[in-house]
Structure formats: structure tokens, C-alpha cells
Amino acid sequence: MGVKSTYRDRDDTDVAVLDALVDNRDDGLTIFELRASVDASIDEIETSLATLKSDDLIRVTDTDSETRLYPRDRVIPDDETDQPSLTDVVREKLPF
Questions:
Q1: Do the domain assignments include residue 68?
Q2: Can you give the residue range of the structural domain that contains 62?
Q3: Long-range contacts of 3-10 (CB under 8 A, 24+ apart)
Q4: Beta bridge partner(s), residue 10
Q5: 82 lies in a domain?
Q6: C-beta atoms surrounding 78 within 10 Å
Q7: Per-residue pLDDT of the chain (96 residues; tens, 9 = 90+)
């Protein structure tokens, strides 16, 4: 599904992290699961998580000695009409 189109103008790693979290919004992701889902270095992911956390776009929970990451509700598309536009898809595919 991916993140709301409103948030797709962020850094590529931010968008990839948000997309992965939105796709797994019910169960959330651990850091290791997120690392496996996002094609970026651990340093880029760490920077992205810090930015997304400070912008209050993700939430972090600690339960049973496990840290899980979730997207905030406002970044989750309301329905199928909030899919990325053709321009968004082309922008992701082409190196600008």
C-alpha cells in the first residue's frame, strides 16, 4: 500500500522506512525486520528513524524485551484512492 502521498516528498530512505512500516502496520517491525525490508545502510536507516521519530511520524513500543516500530495513523492512507500518483511512481523509478 505505501505511505500517504503527502509524505512521499521526503528523503528516499524516509519514504522506504515509512512504506515498510505502513505495509506492516498491524504487527509493526523490529529494527532487524526493517533493515531487511529497506535497501539502505544501517546508518541511513538510523538517521531516518531519528528524523521520523522527531517529526512524530512513527511510534516505538517496548514490550517483552522487544522494540517494535509502527507508523502513526496520519501517514497511513485512508483508502485505495490515496495511492501514489503516476508521477510518484516514475519519480521513484528514475534517478533524479
A1: yes
A2: 5-75
A3: 3/71, 3/75, 3/76, 3/77, 4/74, 4/75, 4/76, 4/77, 4/82, 5/77, 5/82, 5/83, 5/84, 5/85, 5/88, 7/57, 7/75, 8/84, 8/88
A4: none
A5: no
A6: 9
A7: 688 888 888 999 999 999 999 999 999 999 999 999 999 999 999 999 999 999 999 999 998 889 999 999 999 988 655 556 666 667 667 765
Q: How many CA atoms lie within 13 A of 33 on its CB side?
A: 14
Domain count within the chain: 1
Q: Between vectors from CA 80 to CA 67 and to CA 20, what angle results, nearest 5°?
A: 25
Q: Which amino acid appears at position 58 of this protein? A: I
3-state secondary structure of 24: coil
6: which 3 cell numbers?
A: 503527502
Residue 40 maps to which CATH number?
1.10.10.10
Cβ–Cβ under 8 Å, residues 40 and 13: yes
Q: Are 46 and 34 in contact (CB under 8 A)?
A: no
